[in-house]
Design a protein that fits this description.
Elements lengths: L4 H22 L6 H25 L1 H23 L4 H29 L4 H35 L6 H19 L9 H82 L2 H18 L8 H16 L3 E6 L9 H22 L5 E9 L2 E9 L5 E3 L2 E3 L7 H11 L3 E7 L2 E9 L3
Parallel strand pairs: 1-2
Antiparallel strand pairs: 2-3, 3-7, 4-5, 6-7
């Protein structure tokens, strides 16, 4: 259909812009949109210029290698511009490479069959195809895809195997379509074989993404079940405390009558010094019954009160140093998922340790707009770690996933370590206004 400077510029620019907008439709950029658009504009102009010079002077090598070169350049640039990991960016790039390579074939085929090899018809088809594809990605594909990426990202899910399958499939399509000649000039049977291979690759991508989406959804359901279980456990403990308070109130109400009689008796006898001593003892008795306030934050105070009481019942010593303001901007359910799960796992760790000196150390403080949670507990000497997360053979500690998920929702950080025979959890969260 001819190769002229104007046609070369348009074709290269459309292809590179399509690569960029398709990638951005599924991506979370690392920089602000203003900076992102500027960097992408420079990238588009640079590769358009290089591609135009290349196709004008070496059209044969351009047809064979341009897609591969563009893929390599884009994989480096896009990964630097994205918040996602390199492997996740690579997978997005291989997915759109397959879609856009099919776009080139469709544009050329329509221009040859219906527009008497008019190159501008090819360009028009590419523009329409890219626009429709971008709309579909943004409207229906981005949300489930981001759930997959974000859901597995905080679990350090390995994308290596998926990328290998995607890249191998794409290079198979690319090799078949450009060698020995371009697919568009080959026989009808070979073109049908090419379309069948493309369809098979598309189905493979759909099946992989759907499987990942179901896996992520299942993990989300498990996390919700864990959060519900620990919330129910805390509610049970709260009801037990309330019942004890009711019984204590009934006892106090019963004792009030005896207290009034004793005061009246001492007054009638004129034994004021004995009465004062009695009142001091009475005040000390009831002050000991009043619960000590742990901190100003009601949610943290409630969680720690429940688990400290539970630990003391099991003979576990708890040391706490809590310095936290009343409001942190963190939702109650997320605090339960983070601190509740940490304390629950700390209790399990102490029980499993078999140590005679079981203890839990809880420190919470604020510094430079950050909330720091550090919990240390006695534990079993051998704890396995997988991708930085603790794994226990008996299946306990599944709340770790809920902790990580809730922390990452606030763009925080969590760390699990063994230090001097103690299991240590550190959480860093931004304090929100």
């Amino acid at each position: 259909m001819g190769v002229t400077p104007i046609l070369a510029i348009f074709r290269n620019m459309i292809e590179i812009i399509a690569y960029s907008v398709f990638f951005l439709s599924l991506d979370n950029p690392k920089f602000s949109w203003k900076k992102t658009c500027l960097y992408y504009l420079v990238f588009i102009i640079f590769l358009t210029g290089v591609g135009t010079v290349w196709v004008l002077f070496e059209p044969v090598s351009y047809l064979k290698y341009c897609t591969m070169v563009l893929f390599l350049c884009a994989s480096v640039f896009f990964s630097l511009m994205s918040q996602d990991t390199f492997l996740q960016s690579l997978y997005k790039l291989t997915l759109q490479m397959f879609i856009l390579f099919f776009l080139i074939y469709v544009g050329i085929w329509i221009a040859i069959c219906f527009f008497d090899r008019n190159p501008w018809a090819d360009i028009g088809v590419r523009i329409c195809y890219a626009g429709i594809g971008f709309f579909i990605c943004r409207r229906w594909i981005r949300k489930p895809f981001r759930k997959i990426v974000d859901g597995f990202n905080h679990l350090k899910f390995q994308w290596k195997e998926i990328c290998i399958i995607a890249i191998a499939g794409n290079f198979l399509i690319l090799f078949y379509a450009t060698r020995p000649t371009h697919i568009i000039v080959r026989s009808y049977a070979e073109q049908m074989m090419f379309l069948g291979t493309c369809a098979l690759l598309l189905v493979t991508h759909i099946v992989m993404l759907h499987t990942l989406y179901l896996m992520q959804k299942e993990m989300g359901d498990k996390q919700e079940m864990e959060l519900t279980a620990i919330s129910n456990e805390m509610l049970k403990r709260e009801l037990e405390l309330m019942q004890e308070h009711v019984e204590e109130a009934n006892r106090i109400r019963h004792d009030v009558r005896h207290h009034d009689l004793m005061v009246a008796e001492y007054i009638q006898r004129g034994e004021t010094h004995v009465l004062l001593e009695y009142l001091k003892q009475h005040e000390q008795e009831y002050s000991d019954l009043c619960p000590v306030k742990i901190c100003e934050n009601l949610v943290v105070d409630h969680i720690l009160r429940i688990y400290i009481r539970k630990a003391e019942q099991k003979g576990i010593q708890v040391f706490s140093d809590i310095k936290i303001q009343k409001e942190t901007g963190i939702r109650e359910t997320d605090f339960i998922a983070i601190l509740g799960n940490i304390m629950e796992n700390a209790l399990h760790g102490c029980e499993e340790s078999g140590s005679n000196n079981q203890q839990i150390e809880v420190q919470i403080w604020q510094k430079a707009g950050k909330l720091v949670i550090q919990v240390k507990n006695t534990c079993f000497s051998q704890i396995n770690f997988e991708n930085g997360l603790p794994v226990r053979k008996n299946g306990r500690g599944l709340g770790v996933l809920s902790i990580v998920h809730s922390v990452r929702k606030y763009l925080g950080d969590v760390d699990f370590q063994m230090e001097q025979g103690m299991f240590v959890v550190r959480v860093l969260l931004p304090i929100l206004k």
